[in-house]
Amino acid sequence: MATKTTIKTSPIDLEKRKKLDLRPGNTIRVWQKIQEKGKTRLQAYEGLIIAHKHGLEAGATITVRKVASGVGMEKIFPVYSPNIDKIEVLRRAKVSKAKLYYIRDKAAKEIRRRMRKIAGKPIADKEVDELVEQVIEGIETGDISPSEEISAEEKTEEVK
């Protein structure tokens, strides 16, 4: 009888990564291995997948976007990289597009809308920097929800 031997060429489990079913719109947490001063530590990067390129082949990549302190950041991760310890899918979402690059513009428009709502009137006595800080704090604490709509009175004031 011949015994079957397998040669492991990669330190990661390729089959496990293929079964993850990473799609745009999913919220994931990527645990990345970082080496500092001879030590290896794990760092989590949590965000929304806005692009998945090259399918299931060896060079497949995902682009993950997150917002930290009011600044949008994107990182491109090779799916089968040995520097990635694990990938957790936190939330799945159905989206109608394969690339969600429009999210970048949508976030900028949302911040502009919130600034208008906080200011209400032309900015004369407040500094713009203070106003931006208020918007960022509102986003982080959840005081301002993205689903809030501008009332009819505010809309008529903007038209005038």
Describe this structure in words.
- It is a single chain.
- With 160 residues, the protein is of the alpha+beta class.
- The protein contains 4 helices and 5 strands, in the order αβββββααα.
- The protein has 2 domains: 85 residues, SH3 type barrels; 57 residues, no CATH class.
- It has a 5-stranded antiparallel sheet, with helices on one face.
- A hairpin with a 7-residue loop joins β2 and β3.
- Terminus-to-terminus distance: 88 Å
Strand content: 25-35%
Radius of gyration: 22 Å
Class per helix and strand makeup: alpha+beta
Overall pLDDT score: 76
Number of E strands: 5
Poorly predicted runs of 5 or more residues: 144-160
- Looking at the overall shape, the CATH architecture of the largest domain is Roll
CATH class of the largest domain: Mainly Beta
What features would you highlight for this structure?
single chain, 160 residues, alpha+beta, SH3 type barrels, five-stranded antiparallel sheet, 4 helices, 28% helix, disordered C terminus
List the helices and strands and how they pair.
Blueprint: H1 14-18, E1 27-36, E2 39-53, E3 61-68, E4 71-78, E5 84-91, H2 102-119, H3 128-141, H4 152-159
Antiparallel strand pairs: 1-2, 1-5, 2-3, 3-4
Helix pairs in contact: 2-3
How would you sum up this structure in a few lines?
The protein is an alpha+beta fold. The chain folds into 2 domains: about 15-100, Roll (SH3 type barrels); about 105-160, no CATH class. The chain has helices spanning about 15-20, 100-120, 130-140, 150-160; strands spanning about 25-35, 40-55, 60-70, 70-80, 85-90.
